[in-house]
Amino acid sequence: MGKSQYVVVMLACLWLPSTLCQTSSPQHEQLKFRLAGYPRKHNEGRVEVFYSGEWGTICDDDFTLSNAHVLCRHLGFVEALSWSHSAKYGAGTGEIWLDNVMCSGSETSIDKCLSRGWGNSDCTHEEDAGVICKDERLPGFLDSNIIEMQVDENRMEKVRLRPLSAAHAARMPVTEGVVEVKYKEGWSQICNVGWTARNSRVVCGMMGFPSERIQAKKPNSHRSVYRIHSVACSGNEAHLSACTMEFSTNTSSACPGGGPVVVSCVPGPQFSNGRGRKSKLNHVSKVRLKGGAKAGEGRVEVLKGSEWGTVCDDLWNLQSASVVCRELGFGTAKEALTGARMGQGMGPIHMNEVQCVGDEKSLLKCPHKSITAENCKHMEDASVKCNIPYMGFEKTIRLTGGRTQLEGRVELLAPNASSLEQWGLICGDGWTSREAMVACRQLGLGHASSGLSETWYWDSSNVTEMVMSGVKCRGDEMTLSDCQHHHVVSCKRAGAQFSAGVICSDSASDLVLNAPLVEKSVYIEDRPLHLLYCAAEENCLSKSAVRANWPYGHRRLLRFSSEIHNVGRADFRPRLGRHSWVWHECHRHYHSMDIFTHYDLLDLNGTKVADGHKASFCLEDTDCHEGISKRYECANFGEQGITVGCWDTYRHDIDCQWIDITDVKPGNYILQVVLNPNFEVAESDFTNNAMRCNCKYDGNRIWLHKCHIGDSYSEEAEKQFELYPGQLNNKIS
């Protein structure tokens, strides 16, 4: 359609309101869609369209299920189940972009349907249309599946605590202050007449604090502009904008008999002054977050009995997510995420259709249903992003020399620096992707993609002094100073080119071993030596094999299958490019990693009695979940890796898929398998990389019992596992 024709059609739509026209947007206009409203499930809500730089709604006049089908596909769902009228999910704000929309249902875009034209409507927001989509995602659709507060920025753009004094402002986090609301170019206050502790609870939750203090100090004299009056919250709202309140159109409005609202909040144990950021919750929590890049975000997991499991996202909303956040010492939930947005868990799914009111002390106290395998899959695991206090961690770290803001040499503000110019480097000795995880978290840049121990190619700064060395992190710390490090800097390799660097990313892989398959597939084979020449070349036999009478005799092998799943949000790729891969003539394929998995047999004291490894795994997609295509194949010098939602299977009958136990005596042992043991490739979570089993070997046969991922048991159950006395018989219950 030419420009003049487009104008004529649009004018016809404007002059003749009863005329239905094709809704086509200008070619340069990229439409965006989202579901809004409160409360709702992730697959339902008020439909909002981003057009001409502004979010707006769709009127329910002439709305049909066919319209809903087109809109649900825009939102990443396969089809619509139903639709709603009369602003069922609350009245929207801004423009009503479309009215009298009429689709056949087969259109690829809403702008192919008939309507009155963009921005031409005689509706009010009380007629906003909503949809309920079938909870099944379109294959390959990666847009966020998020439930969040839709805040009317014309009423409440931003909320902050203004510290009561300069001394208060210098301490992080700021736990007490005057509540101020951003309005146009300035900030206004809230009149405290009728203000309650429930209101304070909501504000503290937004600031990242789990609870409020009853008494708050009075502010110093300060000219106040009151725009908000008569606030009334239940205390369970995720955002102040969800409370009822009155707005004053007069910016010089007074607060008769009162003054500005001041709140005082109680920080969680991770953020308490003087407690240290390594402090743990003062009780053994039965809820945890896994797989998140930042503090206060991750997949929700709960402990039932002795095993951790996930939560299904049916009915998951901000109230339930906020209960999780407060229980863990954070504020309210900023986002409630569905569709395994923080990666898929493994093992049981403990809860479904969780319906918290918001004042529960624990998620396990909320009404919910137990589930069966038919109800939910791990692709429906629920996640949260919690409000956390602002700590200013990013002010003491920076990246230099990188091609983008996500990469570069890591520089730290020198301890006790009196000037912002006193920056220093981190020694690259021992620097791995675990340390990079913490650096990226402190920078606020998400996950780590790589941790680099040499950065000669990023030499663009005049900073040359090392200010930190010997850094060793668990991976869950909030700052690098929380990690172990040398008290006195000691670096084996001098020079800025040997300082640490990182590449950060908004997503990461996460490898997990299928523990039940190991338990089911284990057996012993006495394999003739003449069949083990390739295995010996790749160091897959114990040291005593060199003294064997080759090619006569045999080796006793503990064999099992490994199925390694990528349950993260990014493909697992080898660190080295294919130009650095090593060709192994014996097995006729390229190896992309030096060591990818350790297999260890330990005695009950934890001492290694036998070991094995897959020297340089050949990484490929053996199989994938429905709707996901394989990307990686070793054959013909193909690309290597494991796609998200796929797994790499190493059958029990291939070379090196074993532990050589020729020299092991009968007894009770622990079998341990560790993926990516040297943290060579970054992952979102390293705590689930180890799998352990109780093992009984009677000299002829072998049994495995209680195979589990390293962090899937409660602390008490893990202690009982380590005290394993051995089987009284060979019957595994």
From TrEMBL:
One of its GO terms (cellular component) is extracellular space. One of its GO terms (molecular function) is copper ion binding. Its EC number is 1.4.3.13. It catalyses: L-lysyl-[protein] + O2 + H2O = (S)-2-amino-6-oxohexanoyl-[protein] + H2O2 + NH4(+). Residues 33-134, 159-266, 287-387, 397-505 form the SRCR domain. Its cofactor is Cu cation. InterPro entries: LOX-like_protein, Lysyl_oxidase, Lysyl_oxidase_CS, SRCR, SRCR-like_dom_sf. It is found in: Secreted, Extracellular space. GO terms for biological process: collagen fibril organization. The lysine tyrosylquinone cross-link (LTQ) is generated by condensation of the epsilon-amino group of a lysine with a topaquinone produced by oxidation of tyrosine. The keyword Ion transport does not apply. Keywords: Copper, Disulfide bond, Glycoprotein, LTQ, Metal-binding, Oxidoreductase, Repeat, Secreted, Signal, TPQ. Residues 1-21 form the signal peptide. It holds the Pfam family Lysyl_oxidase. The keyword Metal-binding applies. Disulfide bonds join C59-C123, C72-C133, C103-C113, C191-C255, C204-C265, C233-C243, C312-C376, C325-C386, C356-C366, C473-C483. Its main location: secreted. Mediates the post-translational oxidative deamination of lysine residues on target proteins leading to the formation of deaminated lysine (allysine). Belongs to the lysyl oxidase family. This is Lysyl oxidase homolog. It comes from Astyanax mexicanus (Blind cave fish).
